[in-house]
Amino acid sequence: MTACHYQEDKLVIINNSQNAICYETLIKKGTTYFEGSAGGKIGIKSSDSPAVRGSIASTIRKYSSDMILYVVYYRCKDADFIYRNTNFIVNDKRFKVDKYSLKELDSINWVIRYPRFSAMK
To answer: Which of 6, 27, 58, 96 is positioned for an S-S bond with 36, CB 3.0–4.6 A?
Structure first.
């Protein structure tokens, strides 16, 4: 029996907001979205790296149909809804969704700041 060995990804999400947030990373394959990593909770003015078995970059290269990483931010009390509705939350206006290409992630050294300021888009 083998164990699943998780490690932190090179992706770092920094929460610059005044509230704790939860997040989920998603990758699109065809018309379906799936988790790119384990999501997480980030305290005020804190950061987090999602737990992964392999890198998010390699998962995008191998499975993504659009080569985009979707990061969904939500109130932690909405976690059950998020997990039950993964395929629909990207288009749900109740949640903040940022999209990043691999090239863009490389250009920012895989460090994402929330909220994402319009000057940074």
So the answer is: 27
